[in-house]
Amino acid sequence: MQIHVIDAGHFKLDGGAMFGVVPKTIWHKQIPADENNLCSWKMRCLLVNTGQQLILIDSGMGDKQDARWMGFYYRHGDGDLIESIKKAGYSPNEITDVLCTHLHFDHCGGSVKWNTTKDRLELTFPNARYWTHSAHWESAINPNPREKATFLKENILPMQETGALHFTDKAEKTFGDSIELLYANGHTENMIMPKIKQGEKTYLFIADTIPSHAHVPIPYVMGYDIRPLQTMSEKEYLLKQVADNNWTIIFDHDPVHDAAHIHLTEKGYRVADMFNL
């Protein structure tokens, strides 16, 4: 198995929204904000070659939105989904599976693109099966008011219209024995967190349950979460497994660090070390 970190670029979100009830006087020491209280976040994806499948986990926000919409999120940096995949040694046509941890725009937008004449949407990875959880799909196409602005129909409906859409909960051993799919319901309905075993090492792509190293403490929960108390319970459960079994957490939005190990301290679970893969 080979695991590649895929850089889909950076974007900005309000620091208060990203840290919920935690005061800025605390979180800004770890994640600095600009004069508009916006923090820079990476859209980090994974590309996993199992030997039988080439699996892309998440795809960033893409580039098909208009300039006004893009202006809300200040996309920046040198990262690019397709170029990063090519740098890893692959082409978009080789991707066999696209696993969307969830269908918020910054995790699935790159899965769909405009055609060359910009009059029709098409799949960025034409030979791939696109995966999500069936209950999450229902929540995305019939969104609650809290999440409506982040589920964009142009990002998700082409998956269904082209026949590429598949549901992880309706298939067995979707990605073989080396990848187990864990689920969380605090951030959004049935968000997928792939646990990847590579030899003696185990990696957990923990998605938006813990988006950065600064979100490891249990109360540090995003204002975007639909069930923040459940997120706290899920974090505690997952962090115990991570610390007890020496798993590596991979962060989807940490602006600098790909991954970390976790240990239990007198103050609770904390980052033991941070590193890039």
Describe the structure.
The protein contains eight helices and 14 strands. The longest helix is centred in the C-terminal third of the chain and has 18 residues, at 228-245. The protein is α/β, with parallel strands linked by helices. It starts with a strand and ends with a strand. Strand 13 and strand 14 form a beta hairpin. The protein is globular, with a radius of gyration of 18 Å. Strands 1-2-3-4-7-8 form a six-stranded mixed beta sheet. Strands 9-10-11-12-13-14 form a six-stranded mixed beta sheet. It has helices spanning 15-19, 24-27, 67-71, 81-87, 105-108, 134-141, 153-161, 228-245, and strands at 2-14, 38-49, 54-57, 97-99, 112-114, 121-123, 129-132, 165-167, 179-184, 191-198, 201-205, 248-250, 259-265, 268-275.
Summarize, please:
This protein has helices spanning 15-19, 24-27, 67-71, 81-87, 105-108, 134-141, 153-161, 228-245; strands at 2-14, 38-49, 54-57, 97-99, 112-114, 121-123, 129-132, 165-167, 179-184, 191-198, 201-205, 248-250, 259-265, 268-275.
